[in-house]
Model the fold of this input.
Amino acid sequence: MEHTVHEHPHWQKHHFETVEQQSEAARFGMWLFLLTEIMFFGGLFMAYLLYRNWYNPAFVVASHQLSIPLGAANTAILITSGFFMALGVWAAEMRKKRQLMVYLILTTIFGLAFLGIKAVEYHEKWEHSHIPGIKYSIAEFVNPPAGSEDKPLGVDMAQKTELFFFLYFAMTGMHALHMIIGIGLLGILMARTQRGDFTTGHVAQIENFGLYWHFVDIVWIFLFPLLYLINLHAPK
Amino acid sequence: MSQEQDASNVTNPEHADHHIVTPVGYAIVFVTLLFFTALTVFAAHLELGIFNPIVAVAIACIKGTIVILFFMHVFYNSKLVKMTVASGFFTFLVLITMTLCDYISRAWGLW
Done:
């Protein structure tokens, strides 16, 4: 390979004819990866759909244990994080290094805020003994505390609430794991931004990370109504 | 330079106009998404019976589509990317439908 004459930018691999072809291939590959992610989360959504239909009373009552204000706040926080990520892609396209850095930092901060609220929620589940398999009590569902609008469940159905919390932790936990990985990647991207890697026309990696981050957004957009907003009227 | 390495041979006319979404465009998408988030919480408190989950999932689908089209740029991407995304979601729906058909038909009358 002749390396003395370089008519293309240094980030363009030699097996691509043009930069545009390279970024199209990268974008295509990223989407294929995201489709495998859809199938991965899809299995969890399928399990949720089935058990929600089978054990609907348990799912309704168990979901009332989740805090709608915290869930809604987290949805807004995640959308805000995604908004800054989108602006980051724009800043990279415009070759504005300082702005790209600021947007990546804001994306990270809102991502961490989401995880912080999630941690508060998980802790609250621990306090109430709603951790399936480890620390679980159906007492609150068999004998609802005074002031609760939920009807008491029979022991058989009350035991199925553990299934709701299993799916709650599996789905939100897997989602949170994706965010933790994303925040790790953001750290790498910020270091490389500082080095000036992405503001000379090489946008593909910022753009593809953006795709990943927005995908994680979309998963939460479905998780929020499915887990937090199940039939709020049923008990009445 | 050989012909294969002539960039003009591989330039896809679809890409000639590389679209960059402006911050104002993103801001409109952002506000729309926040609006639908508020709407889904509001709708969940209405007594809609069987339609509550349907409305919730419909709003989530609208939000997801907006994110895919604009935050993820699919609206401005090539037909290859559009087809890839669409076929992925279609396959997912096929799998969900067939799995549910199986479960529903095994416990016939109990649903």
